[in-house]
Amino acid sequence: MMRTADLVSSASRALRSNPLRSALTALGVIIGVGSVVAMVALGSGAQAQVERSIASLGSNLLIVVPGAQATGGVRMAQGGGGRDTLTLDDVEAIAGLEGVLAVAPSQRGNAQLVANGVNWNTRIEGVTPSYMLARDWEVAQGRFFDESEERQARRVVVLGATVARELFPNVDPIGQAMRISGGSYEVIGVLESKGQSGFGMDQDDVVLAPLTTVKRRISGRFRRADTVSQISVKAASEGELNRLQEDVENLLRDRHRIRPGDEDDFTVQNLSSITETAAATTQVFTYLLGGISAVSLLVGGIGIMNIMLVSVTERTREIGLRKALGARQSDILHQFGLEAVTLSLAGGIVGLALGVAGAWGMTSLFNLPLVIAPQNALMAIGFSGLVGVVFGAYPAWRAAKLDPIEALRRE
Amino acid sequence: MTAPLIEAKELVKLYQMGDETVHALAGVSFVVPRGDYCAIVGPSGSGKSTMMNILGGLDTPSGGRIVIDNADIATLTDEELATFRNRTIGFIFQSFNLLPRLSALENVELPMIYGGVLPKERKERAAALLTRVGLGERMSHRPTQLSGGQQQRVAIARALAGRPALLLADEPTGALDTQTGKDILNLFSELNREGVTIVIVTHDHEVAAATKRTIEMRDGRIVADHLNGSRAA
Prior knowledge:
Chain A has 411 residues and is α+β, with helices and mostly antiparallel strands. Chain A has helices at 4-16, 19-55, 88-95, 130-134, 147-151, 161-167, 211-218, 241-255, 271-314, 316-324, 329-365, 374-401, 404-409; strands at 61-66, 100-115, 118-127, 139-142, 156-159, 177-180, 183-191, 206-210, 230-235, 266-270. Chain A starts with a helix and ends with a helix. Chain B is of the alpha/beta class and 233 residues long. Chain B has a single domain, classed as 3-Layer(aba) Sandwich (Rossmann fold). In chain B, 33% of the residues lie in helices and 28% in strands. Chain B contains seven helices and ten strands. In chain B, strands 6-7-8-3-9-10 form a six-stranded mixed β-sheet, with helices on both faces. Chain B has a four-stranded antiparallel β-sheet with strand order 2-1-4-5, with helices on one face. In chain B, β1 and β2 form a beta hairpin. The longest helix of chain B is centred in the last third of the chain and has 16 residues, at 178-193. Classes of the chains: A alpha+beta (411), B alpha/beta (233). Chains A and B meet through α1, α10, α11 and α13 of A and α2 and α3 of B.
């Protein structure tokens, strides 16, 4: 029986005797493993990005908007419905439900800002101080307005990071004056940056002002005084989110006197279920990309089989001689099998390195997080080894089964 | 050591060639004692190649019985045949059959690799054998850097590496010029005097005359078996 060390050195010697051929054969596996690793990393990065940006909207969050739910389910919160069906009384009622940590009504509008001689068109949200808690948002600079400022409809604003950067590039925005829809406002704070939402919207391109201020002076002027365009409801814990969603729905149906069977005039969106859906979608893409790349790994395996068959034919006489000198069938099988596995495993390792480099390049290009799970890397290596075993088995078996008399006679 | 090294009785080997059954061996019986040096001669088609394949454990007989070094060839499994070829037989071929990628030393090591001999012992034994056949200075040479005679000496060293009971040579001088062939036959005689049993398969009667005994085959049978006068013991 051949010693393992001798088997390994024999296989590596055979591969090194024709380095160009060995390298080209391994190239198929290199490309296969490399593209699988890069594609899966890219997909995982996109998935992490989607999850992260949806989570940035706020955790354990329900968003209630006016109007019936669009068919198919997921519609994003920011839009708001057509009719003014949500009122401040609804907000009060929701606040009384069990398991509610914070309720924050908001009124959305668009506004033309002028400050420092610069014009900026953006979104303005009329909110109450509880909005910050409901949306997991913090003030980076200055302060937020308090309850009394809100009640008194003071002309104060807190700027999103993008707005602050655009309007006050060189000065401290705190204490600066700006004009919104003709009125003068004081900047009292700047929000910390949240970045893009999962839907490609810049969450920092916003101005927060007291709800009453916005209702009276900016966008609510043509609407009923007590309606809001959105209610953010934060649950005390994630476990209560689904129950709370049902409670909110029942409460609002009751309050809005909607009969059983009739369509709701509001929609409650559950962000964690949106997150799950979005994550599942990107995961499907990840599998799809990985699957397509796996086909190239298969092609690489066929390349190995092809070259191994050529090699067995070329080395028929050598195989006959080895058998005459006492090589068992298993020795020959192992030798050729090991050559195939070495080729594919080496291809796998090089492919992994190139795949990681490629993933790094692409994720930095698309500004995605680089996610490479160690088990995926190990799986890529293991899979390339498996390719060697599967596609090396038949050529090795052919070599092992050669009749030594015939083989020695071959020129 | 009383049992003969080779004992063949009524050995038969059949081949199917289309519809025809060819009797490559049609009842061959002979005995080779240990320490013998004999030649099996005959024209092509006489059955001598078949005889050599069976002696070397590359082929098995269709009928009859052959015992080599106490092993009944017909009863051995594939694995046992491999071990038999590794331990009992040392093959020498007409065309040397050295592996071109390996040095002389590594070629001699080859059978010991399949015998599971450890690297250190392998190298020592291979070096000693190459020195024995007169190639002590050329151990790291590749086969292509050696002359035909030198290559055949490497092959003889390789055949001796497993300390075989039987050295089996197939036309060992067939690819060599006359003088080199004589040198190789002299080496065989020396090895035989040191106690190695040698069987040469050849069609060349001059080669056969250099051995102690000639077994002549024709049409799958032994037609003559005699000691060579000048060298007879």
